[in-house]
Amino acid sequence: MKKIIPPVLFVICIVVMVGLWLVFPIVQFVTFPISLVGVLPLVVGLGIAKRGSDIFEKAGTNIETFNDPDILVTEGLYRISRNPMYLGFLMALLGIAIVLGSFSSILVAVGFFVITDRWYIKFEEEAMAKIFGDRYAEYKAQTRRWL
To answer: Are residues 105 and 97 in contact, defined by beta-carbon separation less than 8 angstroms?
Structure first.
């Protein structure tokens, strides 16, 4: 898992969602055209993830999950969430799940949340605490992990 970067996991989840929807949809909880409501969280989620990435780029900091962080970013979306890129990916996956309307797709989004929360974010937070110490502890105390 450590070698799979989060955007790749995001794409894998989309592929699995569509595959399950085609092969094993479990329960259709939303039908067309109501399912098109899912386009909104999909687009908003992608926008949030992109904006989070742009903030990192503007700050000139490392965005790679498994490389050491070099700048503590606390501006913009990072004042609201410590992980807006992951939040955006999760919102997008939930939007796709609504569009597909299948309970199996929701399970994949939940799986993404658990993996991200317990593996990626845990790894990143340990690195941030090690490198930024008290500054990160203060930021962590003031800003929620997700929302």
So the answer is: yes
